[in-house]
Design goal:
The complex is a heterodimer of chains A (about 250) and B (about 260). By secondary structure, chain A is α/β, with parallel strands linked by helices. Helix content of chain A is about 45%, strand content about 15%. Chain B has two domains: about 10-185 and about 225-245, Rossmann fold (3-Layer(aba) Sandwich), CATH 3.40.50.720; about 190-220, no CATH class. A seven-stranded parallel sheet of chain B has the order 3-2-1-4-5-6-7, sandwiched between helices. The chains are: A alpha/beta (about 250), B alpha/beta (about 260).
């Protein structure tokens, strides 16, 4: 299969897009280290990965955990070929009502953790002369979204991080790309609906209405794009922010 | 011609003690605004204030550290106390740091994100209530590296990408309140920050300027005032239908 012999690390893999990406990589032959905060859900992800899976519970907002996670992956599987920075948090607030705690948590998980994990992983990848990093950004890293200020800032930052890292490692055999999904049907949108004080069905319907294709995305669609970006089919693609948005940013 | 005038307006400029921020303070004052010159260096800040006063403008210095929330709130308070209102905020405070990801220390990473991105967030959060009172404009200083990346500047590129999207998010949130939020995206500008960057690379200032100039389509680096004029436009009523944009002031760098 396409990823035979490859080792992947996926954060935020206990639910949503991260769990789907981990499953898709494992199904393609990769050995996968899944990570996330919720140990119970982590066990469910692990069960879906087959014999070549592993899970390490922890919070990527903790700098030490990021280093430990990369080290544990290499220790367990002998190397690291693919890093997917998927863990993310969102608070549905404009700047004015965003608390320091919400801002700092958004930066810690969505931005700083991507740097800490990438730095540790790029060291391994550079030494072997190959690797792929995928950062899960958002269409909210490309266009502004109401009541989502800290998240927008974090995702805009991570798209630029992706481009900068892609340039710096273009000659090291390492490709760095971002996937920019619009709303995907995941537990994250349940949380957003709750924060906005609307019921989930209404939020899903309103979100779908904003998408030219008339629906939100699925986690399998995120995983399929990740499969493309880790495959040789994308060997000339680096520094890209690929939109996965049913046409949202087209107009 | 009375376009681009700011009589009766009050502006607060961060990072106004040197470089682009100082030029913004001067240009906004020349356009008639009363300006709060905010920044860390009292000495340089006072010099900017005195320069504005000599030219017939109104300004006062306010000590500001954008990594301290209380200091941000105090600066906004100082503007409304001294001049009675606040109409324009220019977020120019920023620091540079070189390095690809593998060469970036935790300390450099956190310092750049703290000043360049979280500092803008804090200033905006403090400024929204008074800006809402009479309508207003926020102008953030991003970078052409908000739009594409440069090699060996991972933390800086990350921070400036964040500033642009914070700009767009706020533009959405405050469009109906009469607060416009825009981002000016300069390429290399002849400022103390550029000199510091050159020092870091062990290159002398003149050689660095020549090198940057060669890399830009127009064949020269920009001046702080050239950035400040774009800020003036976005802060003025002539830009009243414009919000959430990135305005490159870049000698053609984004056109490649």
């Amino acid at each position: 299969m396409g990823l035979d012999g490859k080792v992947a690390l996926v954060t935020g893999a206990t639910s949503g897009s991260g769990a789907a990406i981990a499953r898709a990589f494992a199904a393609s032959g990769a050995r996968v280290m899944a990570s996330g905060r919720d140990a119970a859900r982590g066990r469910a992800t692990l069960a879906s990965l087959g014999a070549a899976g592993a899970f390490l519970g922890g919070d990527v907002a903790d700098r030490a955990f990021c280093d430990r996670l990369v080290a544990a992956t290499v220790e367990r599987f002998g190397t690291l070929d693919i890093l997917v920075n998927n863990a993310g948090v969102a608070f549905r607030q404009p700047v004015e009502t965003t608390t320091d705690e919400q801002w700092n948590e958004t930066m810690a998980v969505n931005v700083h953790a991507v740097f800490f994990l990438s730095r540790a992983a790029l060291g391994v990848m550079k030494a072997k002369g190959s690797g792929v990093v995928i950062n899960i950004a958002s269409d909210a890293g490309v266009i502004g979204t109401p009541k989502l200020a800290a998240y927008c800032a974090s995702k805009g930052a991570i798209i630029q991080f992706t481009r900068a890292a892609a340039l710096d490692h273009a000659k090291d055999g390492i490709r760095v790309n971002a996937i920019c999904p619009t709303n995907i049907d995941t537990p994250m949108i349940e949380g957003e609906a709750r924060q906005l004080g609307v019921d989930l069905a209404t939020y899903r319907r309103e979100s779908a209405a904003c998408v030219p294709m008339g629906r939100v995305g699925t986690v399998d669609e995120v995983a399929d794009m990740a499969l493309f970006l880790v495959s040789d089919r994308s060997r000339f693609v680096t520094g890209a922010a690929l939109l996965l948005d049913g046409g949202v940013t087209a107009g | 011609m009375n376009a681009f005038r700011l009589e009766g307006r009050v502006a607060l400029v961060t990072g106004a003690t040197s470089g682009i921020g100082a030029a913004c303070a001067e240009v906004l004052a020349e356009a008639g605004a009363a300006v709060v010159v905010a920044g860390r260096s009292v000495q340089r800040g006072q010099a900017v204030v005195e320069g504005i006063a000599r030219a017939g403008g109104r300004a006062r210095f306010q000590p500001l550290d954008v990594s301290d929330d209380a200091s941000c709130r105090a600066a906004v308070q100082a503007a409304t106390t001294a001049f009675g209102r606040l109409d324009i905020v220019v977020n120019s405070a920023g620091i540079g740091a070189g390095g690809a990801v593998l060469d970036t220390t935790d300390e450099d990473w956190l310092a750049v994100l703290e000043t360049n991105l979280t500092g803008v967030f804090r200033m905006c959060r403090a400024a929204v209530p008074p800006l809402r009172a009479g309508g207003g404009a926020i102008v953030n200083i991003g970078s052409d590296w908000s739009l594409f990346a440069g090699a060996g500047a991972a933390a800086y590129c990350t921070s400036k990408g964040g500033v642009l999207l914070l700009t767009k998010a706020m533009a959405q949130d405050h469009a109906r309140e009469g607060i416009r939020v825009n981002c000016v995206c300069p390429a290399e500008i002849d400022t103390p920050m550029l000199a510091t960057t050159a020092d870091r690379h062990g290159v002398d200032h003149a050689e660095a300027l020549a090198r940057y100039a060669e890399a830009l389509p127009v064949g020269r680096v920009g001046t702080p005032r050239e950035v400040a004029y774009a800020v003036l436009y976005l802060a003025s009523d002539e830009a009243r239908f414009i919000t959430g944009i990135a305005l490159p002031v870049d000698g053609g760098s984004t056109s490649r």
